[in-house]
Amino acid sequence: MQEYLRRLLEDKAHLKKWKKIMIALSCIVVVCTVYALSLPAQTLACDKEEHTHTAECYDENNELICEKEEHTHTDDCTKQEEVNEANEANEQEESTVVKDESGTLNNDEQVNNKTTTTTETTTETTTEPFDLNNSVGKIDSIVITDDKSKSGISNGTLTPNSNFLKITVKFKDIIASELNSKYGRSFSYTLPEFFRMTGDKETTIKDSSGTTDIATIRVKNGKVVITYTEEYINSGTNTTLKGDFFVEGEVDLSQLNKNDGTTSLKTPNGKITLDYRQDYLEKFGDVKVTKQCSKPDSKSDYIQYTITVTADKMEVKMYM
């Protein structure tokens, strides 16, 4: 019985020692594994098979009969690569082809096995002039003047004595640097629909002394365009531009209200109403009367006439 207990205690002691040894070995394995995983991956760049000639590679005459090349991998056969998910997308290599302005490929502009990213910074520019009509606070006042009576108003009702008018626009607070960099030194004003001008003539605007050209004014397709000279806009004389311009033309009678002969224009100071009265066609229209006689019928006692009355853009025909 005592011998059995002694052996049992010895086995228990041996079991404890083996447990300690296994725990120590497990810790060593864990440490080695963690260390190995933390190292960069080793990737062979060499495609040769590692081989060392042995006795089997020679015949009985001591001549080499092995077809394999003797080779031992060295540091030159391996390369370091970082295994990082963030850089995996950049590991793919592709060719970027650069096109010239005409859209054709340049043979010497192909970049092999690299991805090239180019960032361009552009300044927003436009060939269209600055729109005065859609800019709140840039128009100070608009005055319409009857060319015959020389009376004008900026708000209220005007009864013209002729169909020729003068429109004067006073502008302010146009930023010179912005006009220069974004709008080609130009701003525009769209004329009312009832106002028309013929021709496409460019006129020079001079300074207050009348000696220096500072801008040009041009009217085309119902729009007035003011363009400053480079010398004036870059002189730094004014950081903001203000002034006035005027255009002269005639009223388009076809745009008047056919019932009462009126038309109107909204202005910063209110509304201008032009009242040409109901008889505007007789007073201001270019009335033309033409008579045309058709070939008489020999069998009839009547002669047919066509009388055409044209006033401005309106036309009336009567058959008799």
General description of the model:
The chain is an alpha+beta fold. Helix content is 18%, strand content 36%. The strands form 6 sheets. Strands 5-10-14-13-12 form a 5-stranded mixed beta sheet. The model is unreliable at 80-86 and 93-124 (pLDDT under 50).
Descriptive tags:
Immunoglobulin-like; alpha+beta; five-stranded antiparallel beta sheet; 5 helices; 20 strands; 320 residues; 18% helix
Shape: elongated
Number of strands: 20
According to CATH, what is the topology of the domain at 130-281? Immunoglobulin-like
The chain-level mean pLDDT equals: 77
Strand content: 35-45%
Distance between the termini: 155 Å
Fold topology:
Elements (H helix, E strand, L loop, with lengths): L1 H37 L2 E4 L33 E4 L3 H4 L7 E4 L5 E7 L18 E2 L7 E8 L5 E2 L2 E3 L5 E12 H7 L3 E5 L4 E2 L5 E5 L6 E8 L2 E6 L1 H4 L6 E12 L10 E6 L2 E6 L4 H5 L2 E7 L11 E7 L2 E6 L1
Parallel strand pairs: 5-10, 8-17
Antiparallel strand pairs: 1-2, 3-4, 6-7, 6-9, 9-15, 10-14, 11-15, 12-13, 13-14, 16-17, 18-19, 19-20
Concise overview:
By secondary structure, this protein is an alpha+beta fold. Helix content is 18%, strand content 36%.
